């Protein structure tokens, strides 16, 4: 939970950096490619494949391609069709995909997790609801692909680590995550990138280095590490905690307009969903312990 909370704050800051210093100024494909290369360079020297099963290696490549590669390509493209408020609104569906994908893999239906996730979605909607423009269907669908692949990557990484339980530390294999993302983003940049919109200022490069090394490198590593340590309900809820965190940082640092009443109300709903989910899990563990004693 600590890892997820810390990365939530980190990514909330990063969202503002992208919106203020990169959006519309630097080619989005190049920005994503730079983040992947810098993050991968952080972990590549530690990569050790010895002793890792081939399915685990392929799984890590797939997780990176999904959670980082496809997600970020689609996320940046969605801004072509949607306004920022619409993007923020439509990302609230990610927790539902987390819970549903986890239940599909487990071949079960976790009603408490889905209920708590739905409560968190309602909280995020309270914070970020604005009038939706008429021409948004294409952007909405593209963004749902991003939400889905981000959810699949999170759940997939947690399942991989729990199933194979590699003897080497996670940072020894995490470079595979960024290699998988590179397989998706490099061809995308070569085919669709705009070479006329490369970074041109010190600010651009400073922000990209921060986003690559800290937000992408350390951020994705600790987020996925946290995903292994919590249940799917908590993981889904924490995906929506980014919305109030992002608004708080915007208000405090950049003094952007925000409805503080809605911010507090929506944030309170998300916190309540976490507390309800924790209470349900506690009762479930007690029930399982009592059943084992009988």
Automatic annotation (TrEMBL):
It comes from the Bacteria. Keywords: Membrane, Transmembrane, Transmembrane helix. Residues 2-127, 155-277 form the EamA domain. The chain crosses the membrane at residues 29-49, 56-73, 79-98, 110-129, 135-153, 174-192, 204-223, 235-254, 260-280. GO terms for cellular component: membrane. SUPFAM superfamilies: Multidrug resistance efflux transporter EmrE (SSF103481). InterPro entries: EamA_dom, EmrE-like. Pfam families: EamA. This is EamA domain-containing protein. It comes from Alteromonas confluentis.
């Amino acid at each position: 939970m600590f890892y997820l909370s810390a990365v939530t704050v980190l990514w909330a800051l990063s969202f503002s950096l992208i919106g203020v210093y990169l959006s519309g100024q630097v080619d989005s494909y190049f920005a994503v490619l730079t983040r992947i290369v810098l993050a991968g360079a952080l972990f590549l020297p530690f990569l050790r494949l010895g002793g890792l099963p081939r399915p685990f290696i392929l799984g890590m490549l797939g997780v990176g391609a999904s959670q980082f590669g496809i997600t970020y390509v689609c996320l940046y493209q969605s801004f072509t069709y949607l306004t920022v408020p619409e993007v923020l609104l439509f990302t609230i569906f990610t927790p539902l995909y987390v819970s549903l994908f986890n239940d599909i893999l487990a071949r079960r239906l976790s009603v408490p997790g889905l209920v708590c996730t739905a409560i968190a979605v309602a909280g995020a909607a309270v914070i970020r609801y604005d009038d939706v423009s008429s021409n948004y269907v294409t952007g909405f669908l593209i963004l749902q692909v991003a939400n889905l692949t981000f959810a699949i990557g999170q759940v997939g990484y947690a399942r991989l680590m729990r199933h194979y339980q590699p003897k080497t530390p996670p940072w020894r294999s995490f470079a595979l995550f960024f290699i998988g993302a590179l397989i998706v983003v490099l061809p995308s940049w070569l085919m669709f990138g705009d070479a006329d919109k490369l970074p041109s200022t010190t600010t651009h490069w400073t922000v990209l280095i921060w986003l690559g090394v800290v937000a992408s490198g350390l951020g994705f590593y600790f987020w996925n590490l946290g995903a292994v340590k919590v249940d799917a309900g908590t993981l889904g809820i924490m995906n929506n905690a980014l919305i109030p965190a992002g608004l708080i940082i915007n208000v405090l640092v950049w003094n952007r307009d925000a409805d503080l009443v809605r911010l507090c109300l929506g944030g309170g709903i998300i916190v309540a969903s976490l507390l309800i989910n924790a209470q349900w899990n506690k009762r479930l563990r007690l029930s399982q312990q009592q059943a084992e004693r009988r």
